[in-house]
């Protein structure tokens, strides 16, 4: 089976391509390399023994995308491509709506023309906003988003849901990721953020490797077990497997399928610092700073629906997430550029 993977050179996409190749699914990658390095291709090939087909191009380029669809017998699309920095989305809203919303519309239109009616979309737990309680089930209200990035994810969910209302023979799968972290256990592939990392785990990893002086912990006065923010961190390999489970279970079934991809367990910022310190063997310097605007106290997933309907469950714990991140970061202190 051939599956078009938009954004397949990025963090989650590259790990998913590895797992697809291991499972006998052929990824066809489209990526504009805005936030990825071409070196990723060689890493995928080294791990799997297979070189995925890669098209360097932008999903908003309709003629280009049409040509990719007409060159292959594509069964489904996994749609990772997009911009993802929450803070940047506040200062560049038009770029975020153009890339994330318009890009998804162009993709859906090309799929329609090519008669490809199965899409798995990278959504986010951010669509739930600040939940009234935890764990969060898929039926919790969505849309109370606090920034353009979150709104762009919510808008694409709405567009694809409306498409399903109009054309009920589509299979549309919305996967709401919680907090993806970790790296391939080989230490050859991982997250390679450009500039100062916005997210906790890559920041901690760069402190551990000496690229940053110390971690700023954004608030220790939340009503959580130690006062710091609690999130549902999920290993990127579990997340990758979740996409394959979704393709296999519902990718060829008409319907609007919505799943949380998380572990069902919450960890605080201090829990993550402790887990990472154990993995790298040194204690990590940090300071307590004011809360970050827009942050919520806690959030973790209800995972029963994905377990029941996809037969998928995350299996890797925060110790493995930290150990694999450390292996990647210490082997590649400057990410893919150090090759
Ligand atoms: P990433 O930036 O590593 O990967 C995205 C890839 O898409 C990059 O390789 C980039 O070059 C490419 N891209 C961007 N715009 C493009 C365009 N117009 N045309 C072609 N390629 C384009 O991000 P990631 O962490 O792998 O995230 C993948 C998806 O998952 C994104 O849609 C993101 O919003 C979503 N998501 C990520 C997280 C997270 O914490 N990483 C959480 C929830 C949802
Ligand atoms: N966080 C932090 N310092 C950082 C980055 C993040 O204390 O440098 C905290 C943040 O306040 C939140 C948690 O770590 O409680 C996860 O933040 P991240 O940005 O990784 O994910 P998100 O906020 O999108 O869930």
From TrEMBL:
Q: Which GO terms describe its molecular function?
A: UDP-glucose 4-epimerase activity
User: Is-annotated flag, keyword tRNA-binding?
Assistant: no
In its UniProt entry, the species of origin is given as: Vibrio sinensis
Annotated catalysed reactions: UDP-alpha-D-glucose = UDP-alpha-D-galactose
Family per similarity comment: Belongs to the NAD(P)-dependent epimerase/dehydratase family.
**Pathway, per Swiss-Prot/TrEMBL?**
Carbohydrate metabolism; galactose metabolism
Q: Name one GO biological process term.
A: galactose metabolic process
Q: Has UniProt tagged this entry with the keyword Transmembrane helix?
A: no
Under InterPro entries, the record lists:
NAD(P)-bd_dom, NAD(P)-bd_dom_sf, UDP_G4E
Give the Enzyme Commission number: 5.1.3.2
Quaternary structure? Homodimer.
The domain of life for this entry's organism is Bacteria
Q: Which GO terms describe its cellular component?
A: cytosol
Instruction: Output this protein's name.
Output: UDP-glucose 4-epimerase
- Give cofactor(s), names only: NAD(+)
Q: Where is the NAD(P)-binding domain?
A: 4-324
Q: Which keywords does UniProt give here? A: Carbohydrate metabolism, Isomerase, NAD
């Amino acid at each position: 089976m051939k599956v078009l993977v938009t954004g397949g050179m990025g963090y989650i996409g590259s790990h998913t391509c590895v797992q697809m190749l291991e499972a006998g699914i052929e990824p066809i990658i489209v990526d504009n390399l805005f936030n990825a390095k071409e070196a990723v291709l060689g890493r995928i090939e080294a791990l799997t023994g297979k070189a995925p087909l890669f098209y360097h191009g932008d999903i908003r380029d309709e003629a280009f995308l049409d040509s990719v669809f007409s060159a292959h017998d594509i069964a489904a699309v996994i749609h990772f491509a997009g911009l993802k920095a929450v803070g940047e989305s506040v200062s560049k809203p038009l770029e975020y709506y153009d890339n994330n919303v318009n890009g998804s519309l162009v993709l859906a239109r090309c799929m329609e023309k090519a008669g490809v009616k199965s899409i798995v979309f990278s959504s986010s737990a951010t669509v739930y906003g600040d939940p009234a309680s935890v764990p969060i089930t898929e039926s919790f209200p969505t849309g109370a988003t606090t920034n353009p990035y979150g709104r762009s994810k919510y808008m694409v969910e709405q567009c694809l849901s409306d498409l399903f209302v109009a054309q009920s023979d589509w299979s549309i799968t919305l996967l709401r990721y919680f907090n993806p972290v970790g790296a391939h256990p080989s230490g050859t592939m991982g997250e390679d953020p450009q500039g100062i990392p916005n997210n906790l785990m890559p920041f901690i990893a760069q402190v551990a490797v000496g690229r940053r002086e110390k971690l700023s912990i954004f608030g220790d006065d939340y009503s959580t077990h130690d006062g710091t923010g609690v999130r549902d961190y999920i290993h990127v390999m579990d997340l990758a497997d979740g996409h394959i489970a979704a393709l296999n279970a519902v990718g060829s079934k008409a319907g609007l399928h919505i799943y949380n991809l998380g572990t069902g367990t919450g960890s605080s910022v201090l829990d993550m610092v402790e887990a990472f310190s154990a993995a790298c063997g040194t204690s990590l310097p940090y300071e307590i700073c004011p809360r970050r605007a827009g942050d919520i106290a806690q959030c973790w997933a209800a995972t029963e629906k994905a377990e029941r309907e996809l037969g998928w469950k995350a299996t890797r714990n925060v110790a493995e997430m930290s150990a694999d991140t450390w292996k990647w970061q210490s082997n590649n202190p400057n990410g893919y550029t150090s090759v």
